[in-house]
Specification:
Elements: E1 10-12, H1 19-31, E2 40-50, E3 52-61, E4 69-76, H2 85-88, E5 89-95
Antiparallel strand pairs: 1-2, 2-3, 3-4, 4-5
Length: 98
């Protein structure tokens, strides 16, 4: 029996190098004024079905010799785009503490 992710559970996305993931990351980096446009390495992607989709990205910046990882979360609720655009896409960017 294949192990399918549980509804609402967090699952790792093994196809991390997609256009959609890159676009979400660029949107998140644009919210952090000192990080916009910086080159990064994507380490891991997690996704979760919630009221919409929650994506979690773990990245490090190419010019950061410390190797510090950062965590980006993107919560998408596309049905809210017209009614409440700010609620349709919520982005957080923070230092990841393992």
């Amino acid at each position: 029996m294949a192990s399918e992710p549980l509804c609402g559970g967090v699952s790792e996305d093994l196809d991390i190098h997609t256009k959609e993931h890159a676009e979400r990351i660029q949107t998140a980096l644009a919210t952090a004024s000192d990080r916009a446009g910086k080159a990064y390495k994507l380490h891991r992607v997690e996704k979760q079905v919630v009221a919409g989709m929650l994506y979690t990205y773990y990245i490090s910046f190419n010019d950061d010799e410390s190797g510090q990882k950062h965590k980006i979360t993107v919560w998408e609720r596309p049905w809210l785009k017209e009614k409440d655009p700010e609620a349709a896409l919520r982005v957080t960017f923070e230092v990841h503490k393992e």
